[in-house]
Amino acid sequence: MDKIPQNPEAEKAVLGSMIVNEKSRIEALAVLNEDDFCCGNNNNQTHRNIFHAIYALNSSGKIIDLSSIADELNNHMHVMEDELDYLIELTDAFVGEKHALQHINMVRDLGLLRRLLNELRAITRDYNDKPISSVTDFVGEAERRILDITKARRVSGFRAAGEIAEIITNKLLATKQEGKSANAVTGLDTGFSNLNKLTLGLQPGTLCILAARPSVGKTTFAINIAYNVAANTGKTVAFFSLEMAAEEIVKKMLSQKAKVLGSKLSTGNLTENDWIALSEAKNSIKKIKILIDDTSAAKINDIRTKAQKLMREDDNLGLIVIDYMGLITTSMRTDNRQAEVAEISRSLKALARELNIPVLCLCQLSRASEIRPDHRPILSDLRDSGNIEQDADQVMFIFRPNYQKYDAMNQEGSENGDNTNSQEKDVDENGQEIREEYKKQEESQVILAKNRNGQVGVVYYKFFPSISLFMPIEKPSHNFNPPVKEKKGK
Q1: Radius of gyration of the chain (CA)
Q2: Where are the domains of the chain?
Q3: CA-based diameter of the chain, in Å?
Q4: What is the pLDDT of residues 94-120, one digit of tens each?
Q5: H or E stretch covering 75
Q6: How large is the angle between the packed helices 300-313 and 135-150, nearest 10 degrees?
């Protein structure tokens, strides 16, 4: 016979406290329900019936005492006379307000444990009785059923605004004493000072969308951020790459850090200096912790489960990067991709809040931007669903005017000259000169189009596609917003 998690004496103490003490009654009604009780004097329904009677009286605004509870049990619940006599015995179990709260928590936890064990048995029955077409779907559904029960244990109560204000001002005072500026990074340092000024870093519990048209540099920018976060904060970064193999991701890291052409890493045609730089880059990457999962076409339940497991194993997990949303699938049986994307978006936001870390998810833009004369992306270009914009705390677009070729920008470029042939020396974030052969570059911008808790704006970069590097600049030498040419008449 299975062991049942229960404590009859704790249940008696709780019910006795609810009968004779108003404060204990309010505490119990706030966190317990009748399913948390499973014991009694003659059967397993007695304590449950008494709690239900007290709950019903409280909901109706009636006086709660032995007489009213007995009347509720007798007239509305048809409880036997011997169970009414049991009420007097319960009043003797009152243990005082302080101990009552301990018993309330004990009864609550045992109720949760019983429901969890019952659900596990139901999952086992489903496994034995029903054919399983997909192990992934079965595990994902089992996880959801278990989380629906266990998340009740993590429900928070009210917090006084005054106490929260005290915490906030203490943090601000500590920041002032440490000599930090008003623009100090409060979240994860992206490694890009210009982006940090707008976002104050990637904030805990937020969903950040990084979107662009294909081949514009989403993955490269995300890899730059992932490396910077791991190196600058010491946090673990989980990188889910649904499109690109893990080796390709790390090649981009090596190319960016060593300033060695990506093509050389593919062909192996490396000079002695390249090997030295590559060795130093490898050692730098080995000092940080970026974990890559390159499962293609992963389901949202898989990503969520792996992230939760990783957080349990490594409480230093600081950032999750997902490349990219369009390749995530769900267990939904529907031909409506918008509904699927809405579910994915909600799940990613819930994951960020549950783990209390930022989630950076890449997303492709629709072709709508290509129809507009200037090709600049806007929020409505987010592909497949408006829910992405709704769920996201931040939305960033990468925009490369030269690459995305509109006539006005090309003309502007021919007037000002291509930066590739500039005589100015280009240096990396460490002040080291970037060699001449790597000066193929484009001026680009990252548009922060939505920022739920801060300002929006535009920041500028030099993008070196051949070495997978974005480097922040103060302002562009080109006009990024050239006037749109009027169409000639017929």
Answers
A1: 30
A2: 8-154, 186-420+435-473
A3: 99
A4: 777 778 888 888 998 898 888 888 888
A5: helix 66-75
A6: 60
